[in-house]
Amino acid sequence: MKIALGLEPDVNSKWHYAAQMGLRHAVSIRDVALDCAIWDLPTLARVQQSYADFGFDLQVIEGWIPMDNIKLGRPEGEEEMQRLIRVIENMGALGIGVFCYSWMAIHGWMRTSTTTRLPGGALTTSFDHALIAKDPRSLGEVTVSEDLLWGTLEKFLKRIVPVAEKAGVKLAMHPDDPPLSPLLGVGRIMRSVGAFEQLLALHDSPVNGITLCQANFAAMNADVPATIRKLGRDGRIHFAHFRDIEGEAHKMMETFHDAGKTDMFAAIEAYRDVGFEGLMRPDHAPVLYGEPNEKPGYEALGRLYAVGYMRGLIEAARAVADR
């Protein structure tokens, strides 16, 4: 397994920190790409080259492409699908091997606080469904059903998997965050281990796989190491988010990577045992003193702390295996 950092495509201090810590792999993260048309091959090539010029091998594209209309089955989804097909083809042409996506429609990852205080004053994100339940959208009818989302996902995979197979690109589904349904009147389907087994069963191609975001499975009250073994036994964990929480889906708080509910060493051993060789990045981390909290969960210092912790766990797991 290889440790990477999620880096926005514009060079900033995080790029320097990552390079100085000896990281050589990058995940390109961005909320939307409407201002950067990576479905145009030269555009994506320039993005890739910007990482390469800094010493990073770009291996994962995450969160770039608008897909809501595909998920909702709207006519406008065809334009999104054509763009995505070109992105996958371009990734294959450039050797970028993993596309991370989710099936959260309308509402993405959601928190009710981005300023929850930890001991020492670090700021973290948290979620309390009791607050969401008071929203009028939670009291009305469900506007997007789970059946609709399963239907659009099946159609999506039927079209995109052959494209990904031909391009040599792996598709890695991210869990719902938080894994609750409905949320503000919108159904969510990727919220249980069983749902991910159903995802894999929808198309048995090896490219149809998973982003194992550990904290979301912890929020499902799943045994994370056991889940890694179950979902990864046939090599379809293509990417991993290393993070942790306290609590569960209805009321949770993100923690430092070594301070949550999951046995993180056992998780690393599970990845080793299933032969996972992909990229793993530290995901959401608390914001430390002096950082602006402009991007909650995505400032630098907490994630750099996690990199050191991950390296130690990986070295320990390797030493145990070698005994």
How would you portray this structure in words?
The strands form 2 sheets. The chain has a 9-stranded parallel beta sheet. A 4-stranded antiparallel beta sheet has the order 6-7-12-11. By secondary structure, the protein is of the alpha/beta class. The chain has helices at residues 13-20, 41-53, 68-72, 77-94, 129-132, 136-139, 146-167, 193-202, 214-219, 224-232, 264-273, 301-322; strands at 2-3, 5-7, 25-29, 57-62, 98-102, 113-117, 123-128, 170-174, 208-213, 237-242, 245-248, 251-254, 279-282. It contains 12 helices and 13 strands. The longest helix is centred in the middle third of the chain and has 22 residues, at 146-167. The model has no long low-confidence stretch (mean pLDDT 96). Helix 10 (224-232) runs parallel beside helix 11 (264-273) and helix 11 (264-273) crosses helix 12 (301-322).
